[in-house]
Amino acid sequence: MTSRGGAASTSAYSSSSSTSGDGSNSLALSYLSLFGCGVAIGVSASRILLLRQRQLSARRASKRRGEQAPSRDEDEEEEEEECRRRRTSSQALSSASSKTLYATDDIVREHFTRNVQFFGQLGQEHIADAFVVVVGLGGVGSHCASMLLRSGVRKLRVVDFDQVSLSSLNRHAVATREDVGKPKAEVLRKHFAKIFPEAEIEACNAMCEKKNEEMVLGEWKKNETENTTEGDENVAPSYVVDCIDNCDTKVDLLEACARRKIPVVSSGGAGSKCDPTRLKLCDISNANFDPLMRAIKYNLRKKYGISHGVDCLVSVEKQVRELVTEVDLKEGETLRDYQVVPNFRVRTIPVLGTVPAMFGCALASFVLCKLSKTVELSPDEGNDVDTKIVAYQTQLDRLKDREESRGLGKCALDVDINDIAYLIKDVWQRRDARALAKSGDDLATTPWKALNNLEFCRWDVTKPSSIDNLVLFERNECDEWEEGGEHAIQRAFLKEPE
């Protein structure tokens, strides 16, 4: 039946073209032809919508003929008015269930048809009904928030105190040069209204600190037009995504989420990294490869007694670029003198813009799967020890034996197998520290079996066996090192490695 309809419409267009010279009739019949052919091949609602948009644009153009071209501000106002119209028309649907929205709004249904195919109708409804908070809207946070919105999350709270800078355009998800100097949260809200007008975006232009905890993590306040039932006036966050790059602020946010029992996933550092194969999702107890997350782990445990139960995304890649100081210090000045915000970094981190985007998309994927309740995740725990775990465990056992032989006991250790793996692989690179100093950092010539002759000992015997105080030497030299002090240091580095 559809093929006959398509053929009929095509022949009707052909005959009209040959017999009629009326351009308007030809145009009308061409639309009928397109529609008939579309039915024949199962055209999607999005294409019909595109046709409607083109017709609307044509009417606007004809209306403006002979008039002065509208300014950019007028165009923006018209676009915002269209977004407001979409939001207003769907307000009643937004207050109802997501099931009703998908059933009654053709555009929304077509927008998320691929999501429904992946998560199922129920899973997509769970995503649509969620309320997600994204804190930190730089390269990682903006991409995460953008993909959450594009995937159907209808309640988003985006939080950042900062403004868009020109140098951040290499990694921001939606910002343009016109947005430079504007609050990041407001920029996202403006762009998001054009992507998914039916969504509700709450932009918080504020720093995430304890005095603003309720603003950041508080319940979503339903507006007057939304239908509410007793006991369901407000909605607590379904998930929090931590994309902050400041240690103290990050620690306080994670503690607040744990105290409020809000699920949270935290991003490690994306700067100075480039390898897309090294991203790992893991519990914070295993996040020892990323310098930022190691600091978070230490401070969470020290300040709040939290040592596990926080999901993290980290890169296990060693940093390939150093921090850059763009401030020329004068005599008597320190970097602290140039801090815009106390305790925030002054030095800049070299960033390959694609890496924060990958972080953000990975975080969004993780949260979406959790929200859907239809996709089970089984992430690699991020230990990065796999087939080498025996070698790492052997080195850890040797260190424990050494500490016990010195009368300190196992409790003196402040490292675990993940720390040992990091030290061996990325710091000492499977070699005696003297050999590393002499021959550079070419790993290709160093077999794993070389570890059999090596052992960890303390660099400074007066300090704990922590990740920043362990050095890898040949086994027969460790005792001499710990007993000989500075003289042993001189002898060790004067002696040629075998």
Automatic annotation (TrEMBL):
Keyword DNA-binding assigned: no
GO CC entries: plastid
One GO process term, biological-process aspect: cyclic threonylcarbamoyladenosine biosynthetic process
Pfam annotation, one family: ThiF
Residues passing through the membrane, by range: 28-50
Record region (Disordered): 1-21, 60-97
A molecular function (GO) term: tRNA threonylcarbamoyladenosine dehydratase
Name under which the protein is recorded: THIF-type NAD/FAD binding fold domain-containing protein
